[in-house]
Every structure is written in structure tokens, then in C-alpha cells.
């Protein structure tokens, strides 16, 4: 089905809100089973890496199982990256529909995340490109490609920062 700009924005906001509220089942429900999640790193020439299988990535999960495993570790305190707990919130802006047909949509947007941990406030910002499957009752993320523009970070990055 073809989605309106407003419907796509509502979906993006709902995904970000589920994540910020740590409603992990709702957040995971936004992803197709074969969804990839990739945040490449910047190389020494200030270019983004292009192959998550041969080059360093800041985050790479080839399918939803990786995200489910990450959520399991977050929820069961088996993650040093989330101890102590991190407070965060992501804002989304400049949502564009790059292409769309009856079964899919490609969208791009800017994002900013503020986080608080160890009495430090960090700000992360960048762009994201999603490929959505729109053939079902609700959209599902098939590909999430995230570019972190400020790649100097004080601690381990995690899925909730982007």
C-alpha cells in the first residue's frame, strides 16, 4: 500500500518512542525478520566503509535475530554497555520519501539523540535511510542504514543511540 508522508512519519516516531520508553517488544515489532541494521564507520580517508563483512562497522546486524539478542542482553543486565542504565531520547527531522511503490518505501531523515550516563550528556547526530516493507497491515523495517556524523564517542555505541 502507498503510505502518506504523515503515516511514514508516525511510524518513525512510534519506533523511536518505543525504543526510548524501552518497550523492546514493540520496538522489535517494527522490524521484518530479515531486516538488516547497519551503521558503517568512517575510515582513515574520512569515507564511510562500504562492506560490513570486510570492514569495520560501528553496528551491524544482518537480520532481526541480532537485534533480538541485543535486546535480550539489555533486558537481562548481561551488557556492560548498558550498566549503568542510559537515559536517552531521539528526535527525528527532515523526513523525505525517496521512493515508493505498492509494497515498499525508501525514506531518509535526520536524527539527534541526547543521552545521559555517568553524569555526562552526550549528543549524537546523523542521517538514516530505511527501506520499509509496506505490503502488510503495518510497515516493517527491512533495512536500517545509519550514518553517525559525530563518530568520536566516549563509550560503546548501542542500538538505542540511533
Given the structure, what is the number of helices? 3
- Report the major sheet: 6 strands, mixed
Provide the helix percentage.
10-25%
Tell me the overall shape.
globular
Number of extended strands: 6
Order of helices and strands: HHEEHEEEE
Q: What is the level 1 CATH name? A: Alpha Beta
CATH architecture heading:
Roll
Structural class: alpha+beta
Low-confidence stretches: none
**Strand content of the residues, in percent?**
35-45%
If you average the pLDDT, what whole number results? 89
Please list the strands of the largest sheet in the order they lie side by side: 2-1-6-5-4-3
Radius of gyration in whole Å, from Cα? 15 Å
What would the CATH topology be? Nuclear Transport Factor 2, Chain: A
End-to-end distance, in Å? 27 Å
State the domain count.
1
Amino acid at each position: 500500500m502507498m503510505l502518506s508522508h504523515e503515516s511514514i512519519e508516525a511510524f518513525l516516531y512510534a519506533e523511536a518512542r518505543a525504543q526510548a520508553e524501552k518497550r523492546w517488544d514493540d520496538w522489535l515489532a517494527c522490524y521484518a525478520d530479515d531486516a538488516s541494521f547497519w551503521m558503517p564507520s568512517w575510515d582513515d580517508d574520512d569515507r564511510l566503509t562500504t562492506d560490513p563483512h570486510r570492514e569495520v562497522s560501528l553496528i551491524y546486524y544482518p537480520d532481526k535475530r541480532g537485534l533480538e539478542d541485543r535486546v535480550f542482553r539489555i533486558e537481562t543486565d548481561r551488557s556492560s554497555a548498558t550498566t549503568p542504565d542510559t537515559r536517552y531520547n531521539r528526535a527525528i527531522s527532515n523526513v523525505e520519501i525517496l521512493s515508493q511503490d505498492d509494497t515498499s518505501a525508501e525514506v531518509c531523515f535526520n536524527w539527534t539523540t541526547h543521552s545521559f550516563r555517568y553524569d555526562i550528556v552526550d549528543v549524537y547526530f546523523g542521517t538514516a535511510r530505511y527501506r520499509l516493507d509496506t505490503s502488510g497491515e503495518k510497515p516493517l523495517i527491512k533495512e536500517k542504514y545509519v550514518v553517525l556524523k559525530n563518530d568520536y564517542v566516549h563509550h560503546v555505541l548501542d542500538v538505542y543511540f540511533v
